[in-house]
Write a structure and sequence with these properties.
Layout: H1 7-11, H2 27-53, H3 56-61, E1 63-66, E2 69-72, H4 74-92, H5 99-116, H6 120-123, H7 126-149, H8 155-178, H9 181-210, H10 218-246
Antiparallel strand pairs: 1-2
Length: 250
């Protein structure tokens, strides 16, 4: 579970408003493009997660067996940590990279995430994964709709959710050493709540961005990709936390 929120890049979108033109993008068009890229990335991730889960050579290469037991190989650690590296690269290189480069990185990231998530097909039954995906999609859709249509300013609410996200990351790192099932359960509950809330906040934020940039420009294309990455992370993390509750282990 990792989510590197793109608040700085998205909130700085005012720098890209063209003061010399009144032709601003319709927020709905901007949001549609964001969701289209997000859906495409999720499809790529799902396909490669299933594909690599059925590749015995790949799975065996992720595990190393010693006299003391089994653990992750070097390749296994690379596959697990590579997605975080891609997110950091896209965020830190937002101003330097072109829209085409960010798009290629996003596509590559969704593929790597598929490799990283292939393990869930080895741990959970296919039917429970499908059920969890459906529940995640329904929850995400409801909160995205709420975030897009509400007239309430969710800025303060979003800030609280982001603080909760930081707390989850810290607690997860601590629990890696404590290995407490109770803490893992609590983290999972908070994780579902946090990413449900972040979905509404991020969609409202993207709607505002769509109303303030000139659609079709290079900066707007870059913001579409970063927006898609943000919502993609919200969905993936929501799915993984829900899987802890709804997933039936093999």
């Amino acid at each position: 579970m990792f989510n590197f929120n793109q608040n700085n890049n998205l909130n700085n979108q005012q720098a890209y408003i063209n003061p010399n033109t009144g032709a601003m993008a319709v927020p709905r068009t901007f949001i549609t493009n964001v969701f289209s890229w997000m859906a495409a990335a999720l499809a790529i991730t799902a396909f490669f997660a299933y594909y690599f889960s059925t590749n015995e050579a790949f799975i065996s290469s992720l595990i190393t067996v010693t006299e003391t037991g089994a653990g992750m190989s070097v390749l296994g650690w690379i596959v697990m940590l590579a997605p975080l590296g891609f997110v950091l690269a896209m965020s830190l290189g937002f101003n330097k990279f072109s829209a085409n480069v960010l798009t290629l990185l996003f596509i590559a990231y969704s593929l790597i995430m598929g490799m990283s998530l292939s393990f869930i097909f080895l741990v959970y039954t296919g039917s429970s994964i499908a059920l969890t995906f459906g529940v995640s999609a329904a929850t995400f859709g409801v909160m995205a709709f709420a975030g897009y249509t509400t007239k309430l300013d969710l800025s303060k609410f979003g800030a609280i959710m982001f603080m909760g996200l930081i707390g989850i990351i810290i607690a997860s790192l601590v629990n890696m050493f404590m290995k407490s099932e109770t803490m893992d359960y609590i983290i999972s509950i908070i994780g579902v709540l946090v990413f449900t809330g972040l979905t509404a906040w991020d969609v409202q934020k993207l709607k505002r961005i769509g109303a303030g940039v000139e659609f079709g420009t290079e900066p707007a294309r870059k913001l579409v990709i970063m927006g898609a990455l943000t919502l993609y992370l919200d969905f993936i993390n929501l799915f993984l936390f829900l899987l802890r509750f709804l997933g039936n282990k093999k």
